[in-house]
Amino acid sequence: GKTIEAxxxxxxxxxxxxxxRVLFVTPANLRDQWKTILREFFGINAVIMxxxxxRKLESQLLVGGNPWGYYNFIITSIDYAKQPGIREEIIQFExxxxxxxxxxxxxxxxxxxxxPRADSFKQSYGFAKTLAEEYQNLLLLTATPHxxxxxxxxxxxxxxxxxxxxxxxxxxxxxxxxxxxxxICQRRRGDVEDWIKESRYNKNPFPERDSNExxxxxxxxxxxxFDALNEFSKHVLERTKESLSKExxxxxxxxxxxxxxxxxxxxxxxxxxxxxxxxxxKKLQRNYKAIDDPESLLSPEEAAQSVMDGYENDRLDEDELxxxxxxxxxxxxxxDLNKEKSLLLEVKKEAKKLKKEDRKMIExxxxxxxxxxxDSKKVIIFTRYIDTLTYIEGNLLTKIxxxxxxxxxxxxxxxxxxxxPRRQDIxxxxxxxxxxxxxxxxxxxxxxxxxxxxxxxxxxxxxxNPNRLEQRNGRVDRFGQPKKKVYIRTLIMKxxxxxxxxxxxxxxxxxxxxxxxxxxxxxxxxxxxxxxIMEKRKGESKKDAQKTLDRWIQFSQSVDxxxxxxxxxxxxxxxxxxxxxxxxxxxxxxxxERMRLTEENIGNEETLLRFLEKAVDLYEGEMKLKNExxxxxxxNLPEGIQNEIGVRFDYNYLITPNREVDVSRNKINGVSLxxxxxxxxxxxxxxxxxxxxxxxxxxxxxFASDIVxxxxxxxxxxxxxxxxxxxxxxxxxxxxxxxxxxSGEILEDELVxxxxxxxxxxxxxxxxxLIKHLKMALKLESLNDLLDxxxxxxxxxxxxERKTMIKTLQEQGLSTDLEGIDDLDVVGIDxxxxxxxxxxxx
Length: 842
Known about the structure:
It is built from 34 helices and 21 strands.
C-alpha cells in the first residue's frame, strides 16, 4: 500500500543520511494508523500533533520549548496544520521531507480559488503549496489523484515541480508527460495482476470478488415512518425558504442526515429524534427565540462531509458531527419550536412501531447471515452509525440465545469512540474465533488489514461515498487474502432515496472501476450536490412540493442529471489522458535476487530462529516444535530471565519464522529483531559478551560443521565507501571472507557461503584451545592482504552493478539523480567478527 511504499522511501533516505526531520500531513482519521505503521514496520517513533495532544507534548519539554522544532517525526492533520497560526509555526522550522497523505484533499479547487464556497479547499491547497515551495523533498500519496478536472490534477504536479505543467490559458493546463513520468508512480490492481502474471510467478495474488445487492421491500410501517419524517422535513425546509443561502443549505443537509439515519435503522432514527427533542426542550425552557450563527454548531462544509460520508476533521470526529446534526436547529419563533417538537414526536411514535417489524433486520438475521455461513463461519458487518451497530448487536445477541443456527457464534463490536488499543484487542479476539460476527463502523474500513480474519463483508446500508464503499470491501478483498473468493453483500431498501440515487451512483462508480480500474473521488466538493438539487428545485410547482422529500427536492427525477455531473464521459476521458497507469518496469526477479543476497549476508528469520534456540538453551529455558507444518515453536524461559529482558509471559510463548502465520494468527509471534523476546535476548547476550570480564570479549564465535575437514576461520568485515555524488554520500556494507587457519589459504566465496549456511553443531573445544586459535586468526600474515583484497573486489562489483543499473534506467527514461553513484572509493575496513569452524568429526 501507499503507506508502506512511503515508509520504504523514507527509510532509504534516512539510511543515506539525506533527511533527518519529517512532517506527515494526513486526514485526522488516519493519524493513528500512520503512527502504528511507522513504529511497527520501520521502527520510527513519530508523535501526533493536534489541538488535543499538544499540551501533553509541551509538558515533556523545557519551558518555552516548541514541539514542532523538538520532535523529528511529527504527524498532524491537514485541518489542524492549515490554521493560520499553526501554519506559521510549522514553517518556522526546517523540514527535510514532507509527506502528504490523501493528497487529493490539497489540490487547487476547480477553476481556481475565486469560488467563495471553496474556502476550506483553498486553505488546504495554500498550505500544501507553501510546504512545496519551502522544502525540497515532497511526497504526495493518493488513490484518487484526478477528480475529473485537469486544473485540479495539474496543481498537484505543479507542487512537485513547476516544469511538469504548462498553463496555456486561464485554468487551461498542459501536462508535460515526458517529464512528469519521472515523478509519478501510479498503478491499478489490474496493472499489478498483469505484472505478476507475466513474471515467473504466473499467478494472481488477489482473490476473486463475488458482490451482490440484497433488495428489501419496505413494509407499510416503513412508509408510515417516512410519511411522518417527510412532514418534519417539509416544515424545516419551509422555515428557511426565505433565509440566506447558507442556512438553506444547512437545512437540506440536516434533513438528508435524518433520512440517512432512518434508512440505516429505526433505532438510529429514534436516537436522532430523541437528541433533537431534548435540544428543543432546552431552548423552550430558556425562552429561546433564534439562532444567531448556526455555523458555530456545524459549518456547511462539516454538514456536507457528514452526509456525503466524507472524512472527519481535526475539530470533530464523525460521531460528533452526527450528534451536532441531530441538534442543528435553525428557527425564528417559539411557535416553530413547538411545531417541530410535535412533528418529531409523531416520527418517534412511528419509528418505535417500525422497530417491531424491521424487514431489513429480519432479512439480515433470517436470510443473509445463514446463507453466508454456508461459505464461512466468519462475517464482518459494516454500518455507518454507532446507534445502528448497537441495534444489530442487540438483535444478534437475542438470536444467539434462542436460535440453534447461531449456536457457538461470538459477536464482536468496534466503533470510533473506542480507544485504538481496545479496538485492536476486540479485533484480535475475532481473528482467533472459529465462529464470529464482527460489527463495525468505518473506523475499521481504513488502516487495518482484515483479510486474515474473514472473506465476507455485509454492508448494512449503502454508504453515500463510492470510495468509502470500496475501502470497506477492500479490507478483505486484498493481497494476502488466504481464500480464493471474497463475498460482498449490500442491503438496500427499495423505493427510497438510497436506491433511487445513490445506488445508481455507486453502480456507475463500480462500472467505471471495472472498465478503467479506478474509482475517482467524485465527492470532493459535495456542495455541488446541493447546488444541483436547488437548481432543479427552481420552477417546480407548489403541488409537486407537497410530495415526499425525494420528490420535493427532485432527487428521484434527477438521476441522469446528477450522474452527468459526477460521471461525465469527458471527465473520465480526461482522467485517462492525464494518467500514468501501468508502471511495472521494475524487475521482480532482480528484487528477489537482491533479497536473497541480503539474507545470505546478514541472515533471515531462520538465522534468528537458530540464534533463539541456542539462546533459550543457554539460559536453561525450553523451546520445542508445536506445529511442524506451520513451523510454530513454544518457548518457556525462567522468570528471572524474563525479568531481565523485560518481557513477561505467564503462558508458553508461541513464535514462528513463517510470515503468513505471523500476520494471520494474533497469538503467534513472528521471529524478527522487533520481537521483544528476540531483541531482549540479543541485548542480554551482547551485554554479557562485551563485558570486560569476558575473556573472549564479544565478537567471536565457534561451531562445528561437516562441510570442512580442517579448521577454518571466517571474518566478517564492515567496508565503508564514499560515493562521489553531489553532495558526497557514505555507504557501508558487511561482507565476509574465509581462510584456512593454519595455511592462510583463502577459501573460495562459494565454499564460505556453504559453510556459513550449513548446520552448526557444538565444537566441544575447551577455552584454552579457542583462545589459541582466535589469536592465530588475528596474527595470520595474510590477514591485511585478505581484507584489502576483499574491499577492492567488493568495490569493483558495486561499480559494475551500478553501471548496469544506470544503463537499464536510462533505457527506461528513468535516470534521474544518478550522476556519480558509480564513482566510489574505499575509506575504511573494520574487522567485525571472527568465527572459527571446526570439522564436525575431526
